[in-house]
Design a protein that fits this description.
Oligomer: heterodimer
Largest sheet of chain B: 6 strands, mixed
Structural class of chain B: alpha/beta
Helix content of chain A: over 70%
Strand content of chain A: under 5%
CATH topology of one domain in chain B: Rossmann fold
Radius of gyration of chain A: 19 Å
Helix content of chain B: 25-40%
CATH superfamily of one domain in chain B: P-loop containing nucleotide triphosphate hydrolases
Shape of chain B: elongated
Distance between the termini of chain A: 25 Å
Number of helices of chain A: 10
Strand order of the largest sheet of chain B: 6-7-8-3-9-10
Radius of gyration of chain B: 24 Å
Number of strands of chain B: 14
Order of helices and strands of chain B: HEEEHEEHEHHHEHEHEEHEEEHEH
Number of helices of chain B: 11
Shape of chain A: globular
């Protein structure tokens, strides 16, 4: 175990994030504000309470999830793809660094970045709506779990991609649509059949509802199901990455 | 015949207690390209070993296989007496690599890039060591600059600084002076010499023969994945070195006189130039040229000038690669 290498990767990744802090921070603030203006104020005013909370407060976990899926995915995918692209990957491959240290470094950094952005989004949301977090510690744990799961997913994406286009395709064409259709802005109770059933095949639906439960104490599915789903996804990603490191796929010639 | 089979290599480049011992190393890429073909190589502790070869010879693949960038198709690699496959974690801490291509985060600061490398190899943070490395490579004044703002030569120094940050005992330099100007190249040679003086074993690949001639203790020639020759620089010159002399005759000769039949001579330029090609790099060639000249004087054959040249390592290298099987 080479703990110092994990710290080096972590520090390097966090430094990279803060090097572009202006964009990293301003972007979620602006996006969240726009969503609250459009959905919270303009459309939300026409919608009654959902599950005992105002519509504005209802969409906070969904908006948070929108960022929590996108940011760690793109951060981790760029984090590993760029060294492959520039050739700097030689250092990771020639150093006494195994899959464990690599993931601790990359995923740890992604969690830190996600927590910073989560804080910014929640602070921004307070400017538009009153909301409370019913289970704050669970919320913190769940945010970290989802961030780490999607950092792992992003890591796989960064290894799989052989061009910048592929890096963008999955977040843009798969993650974002699934997040929007997973109940970011509505409860599936509001959907008619067969869409209500179809929505339950969307994995992101369980993640959003898990986070929503930590905020409001209520959700469309039991928290245990959401949690099991998230953990299973995380384990699957770790297994895939372990196989990639063992075989050297996309890493070693 | 000097083509190096594994057994022959072990004879010509016999190394006891090597710091790196490669046996039967092979690499065939997915497309079927054979980059390494049953390579045996042993590196002595504390030496500078130059691996010479044309582009695509397998130099970088060989280094990559040792350093973990390439998965060998066969063979074994032992470093510091241990198998690299099984003890990679412990062994990689002791090995450094400067790859051929410049590869780093261009937006990173010089000092942070070097600190990062030190951490990756499991070393505790050491501002003193980082300062020492940066100063030794004349990078201290640039320590807070982003790498992208440095010149090409400076960037290459950063690559070396990164590789030295964890004090490797065995350092691989893959084309360390490719694309740098003559002055910087000389400076790098000096720095590599200093590293050797501090006890670092250095394996460098190059296609600048001058570089190998200037610095290396031993030389290996590789082509098409096969190691053709491994030996000390002086021994190679002795075995494969040649003397060439051209004697400009006052009058043309129709044929080589019988009293010169014992020497490797030929006539060129309508019989006006007597050409000697021979010797073994140990002085035999010069002696024979002197004997030929004495015989010419004895037999009243007038000549107007003599030009002699000892073959360089480059001549030997070119000859080996182009006519690899025909050398003695």
């Amino acid at each position: 175990m080479n703990l110092r290498s994990a710290i080096a990767i972590f520090t390097n990744e966090v430094t990279r994030f803060f090097r572009t802090a202006f964009g990293s921070i301003l972007s979620p603030v602006l996006t969240t504000s726009l969503y609250f203006v459009v959905f919270g104020a303009a459309i939300g005013g026409q919608i009654e309470e959902i599950g005992g909370v105002s519509y504005g407060a209802f969409i906070v976990p969904g908006l948070l999830m929108l960022t929590l899926l996108g940011e760690p995915t793109s951060n981790a995918s760029f984090g590993i793809y760029m060294p492959r692209f520039t050739g700097a990957i030689y250092e990771l491959l020639s150093a006494p660094v195994g899959v464990f240290e690599t993931l601790v470094g990359f995923v740890g950094a992604a969690i830190v970045k996600s927590l910073v952005i989560t804080g910014i989004i929640l602070a921004t949301a307070l400017l538009f709506v009153d909301y409370t977090i019913v289970h704050p510690l669970y919320a913190l744990g769940y945010v970290m779990l989802v961030a780490s799961a999607f950092a792992l997913f992003g890591f796989i994406l960064g290894l799989w991609a052989d061009g910048f286009e592929k890096l963008q395709i999955v977040p843009m064409l798969i993650l974002t649509p699934l997040t929007f259709l997973g109940g970011t802005f509505y409860s599936i109770e509001m959907l008619a059949e067969p869409w209500r059933t179809v929505a339950q095949f969307n994995p992101i639906f369980y993640l959003i509802n898990g986070l929503r439960w930590t905020f409001t104490g209520a959700s469309d599915v039991p928290i245990a199901v959401s949690l099991a789903f998230t953990v299973a996804f995380e384990v699957l990603c770790v297994a895939v990455i372990a196989v990639i490191f063992k075989t050297g796929w996309r890493l070693r010639d | 015949m000097l083509l190096a089979s594994g057994a022959a290599l072990r004879e010509t480049g016999a190394v006891s207690d090597p710091i790196l011992d490669i046996q039967g190393l092979s690499k065939t890429y997915a497309g079927g390209t054979v980059a390494l073909d049953n390579v045996d190589l042993a590196i002595r502790k504390g030496e500078i070993f130059a691996l010479l070869g044309p582009n695509g010879a397998g130099k970088t693949t060989l280094i990559g296989a040792v350093c973990g960038l390439v998965r060998p198709s066969g063979g074994t690699i032992c470093a510091f007496g241990k198998d690299m496959g099984r003890h990679w974690r412990d062994l990689r801490r002791r090995i450094g690599l400067v790859p051929q291509e410049l590869g780093f985060d261009m937006f990173a600061r010089v000092d942070r890039a070097v600190e990062y490398s030190r951490g990756m190899f499991g070393c505790a943070p050491s501002p003193q060591r980082i300062e020492e490395v940066l100063r030794s490579l004349n990078l201290w004044d640039k320590r807070t600059s982003q790498i992208r703002h440095l010149s090409g030569g400076m960037k290459r120094r950063v690559m070396i600084a990164k590789a030295l940050s964890h004090d490797p005992e065995l350092l691989f330099l893959d084309e360390p002076t490719a694309g740098v100007d003559v002055e910087l190249r000389r400076d790098m040679w000096r720095q590599i010499g200093e590293l050797r003086n501090r006890g670092t074993t250095i394996v460098l690949t190059t296609h600048y023969i001058e570089e190998a001639q200037e610095m290396a203790d031993r030389v290996g020639v590789i082509d098409k994945g096969k190691l053709l020759l491994v030996d000390g620089k002086a021994a190679i010159m002795a075995k494969l070195g040649r003397t060439q002399a051209q004697v400009a005759l006052a009058q043309s000769l129709g044929e080589i006189p019988s009293w010169l039949g014992a020497y490797p001579l030929s006539l060129e330029g309508d019989g006006r130039t007597l050409v000697y090609r021979g010797g073994d790099g140990s002085g035999k060639g010069k002696r024979e040229v002197a004997e030929v000249l004495r015989l010419l004087v004895q037999h009243d054959v007038a000549f107007e000038g003599v030009e002699t040249r000892e073959s360089s390592l480059e001549d030997i290298f070119v000859d080996l690669v182009e006519n690899k099987l025909e050398r003695v």
